[in-house]
């Protein structure tokens, strides 16, 4: 069960800003939340209805441009999953999807978040839904952004997860650093970023972060209990929650947006023209406008 943390002073214990993360590139203050052997790096920006932005795989720098556009209307909360970005870890074991879900639960409890909207990207989909399954009454809406939330099926998807989660590809990335270079390119987060910002993103994906990325991908094929929890939540208490999906036009090879529509027939669906895997970076103005308009028309008047 998610419980509110009476000692909210945790919000004011700052995380020391690393040398590679200048104020000009990251105009936010980050604070620490303790969670199961990790000190989570949690960031807030703005005021208004709460948005909890969840990504698992790289780190929360990918939310920067979207948050700067939404923070005039929303309280945006985002964090680095265990093993990623500015989050520090004491566990000797590779992080799992369940670890990431517990981190989401911890952030919700520490900040006593209620009446919030989930904004999930990539593996943040199953992780965040698994976390809020414990307290679905707190969720007012869900935004799925190039995300899924069900047991991976089909040979193509499972093969992709197997390859990217393999020890061979993980160790190749340790040797070459190919993942942060690809992820920071115009095909990743870097379409509208300057080279300094791309360099900051790459710095946040150090060897530990890259190893965690591949371990998360490996675990995404096999965390059956987590997917079962997610399935029960989506079919039960979350089935009537307002849903928005936002996908890049060029990056839905497994038909995730169609599957979301089957689960949520009333879902509003948006597509970023010529967009890839990171719609919040490909078209931050468009994505912010879609979230703002959907929230006002589908969520704000509902509660």
Characterise this structure:
- This protein is an alpha/beta fold and 303 residues long.
- The protein has a single domain (8-153, 224-302), classed as Alpha/Beta hydrolase fold, catalytic domain (Rossmann fold, 3-Layer(aba) Sandwich).
- Helix content is 40%, strand content 18%.
- It has twelve helices and nine strands.
- Strands 1, 2, 3, 4, 5, 6, 7, 8 and 9 form a nine-stranded mixed beta sheet that branches.
- Strand 8, helix 10 (256-263) and strand 9 form a beta-alpha-beta unit.
- Helix 2 (97-110) packs across helix 3, helix 3 packs across helix 9 (224-235) and helix 5 packs antiparallel against helix 8.
- The radius of gyration is 18 Å and the shape is globular.
- Residues 4-11 have low confidence and may be disordered.
Short description:
This protein is of the alpha/beta class. Helices cover 40% and strands 18% of the residues.
DSSP helix count?
12
Helicity range:
25-40%
How much is the average pLDDT?
94
CATH topology: Rossmann fold
What is the CATH domain class?
Alpha Beta
Structural class: alpha/beta
Radius of gyration: 18 Å
- The fourth-level CATH homologous superfamily is Alpha/Beta hydrolase fold, catalytic domain
**What form results from the Cα inertia axes?**
globular
- Total beta strand runs: 9
Q: How far apart lie the N and C ends?
A: 23 Å
Question: Which CATH architecture is right?
Answer: 3-Layer(aba) Sandwich
What series of H and E elements makes up the topology? EEEHEEHEHEHHHHHHEHEHH
Summarize the main sheet: 9 strands, mixed
Overall domain count? 1
């Amino acid at each position: 069960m998610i419980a509110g943390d009476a000692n909210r002073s945790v919000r004011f214990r700052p995380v020391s800003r690393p040398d590679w993360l200048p104020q000009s590139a990251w105009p936010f203050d980050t604070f620490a939340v303790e969670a199961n052997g990790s000190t989570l790096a949690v960031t807030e920006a703005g005021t208004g209805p709460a948005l909890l932005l969840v990504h698992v795989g790289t780190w929360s720098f990918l939310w920067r441009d979207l948050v700067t556009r939404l923070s005039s209307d929303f309280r945006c909360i985002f964090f680095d999953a265990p093993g990623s970005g500015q989050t520090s870890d004491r566990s000797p074991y590779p992080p799992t999807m369940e670890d990431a879900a517990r981190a989401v639960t911890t952030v919700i409890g520490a900040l006593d978040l209620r009446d919030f909207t989930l904004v999930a990207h990539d593996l943040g989909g199953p992780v965040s839904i698994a976390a809020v399954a414990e307290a679905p009454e707190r969720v007012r809406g869900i935004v799925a952004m190039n995300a899924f939330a069900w047991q991976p099926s089909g040979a193509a998807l499972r093969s992709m997860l197997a390859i990217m989660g393999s020890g061979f590809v993980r160790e190749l990335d340790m040797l070459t650093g190919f993942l942060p270079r690809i992820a920071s390119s115009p095909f990743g987060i870097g379409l509208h970023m300057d080279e300094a910002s791309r360099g900051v993103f790459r710095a946040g994906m150090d060897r530990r972060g890259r190893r965690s990325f591949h371990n998360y991908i490996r675990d995404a094929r096999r965390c059956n209990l987590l997917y079962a929890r997610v399935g029960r939540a989506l079919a039960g208490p979350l089935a009537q929650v307002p849903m928005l999906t936002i996908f890049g036009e060029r990056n839905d090879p497994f038909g995730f947006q169609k599957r979301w529509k089957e689960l949520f027939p009333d879902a509003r669906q948006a597509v970023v023209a010529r967009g890839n895997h990171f719609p919040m970076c490909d078209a931050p103005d468009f994505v912010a406008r879609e979230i703002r308009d959907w929230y006002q028309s589908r969520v704000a008047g509902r509660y």
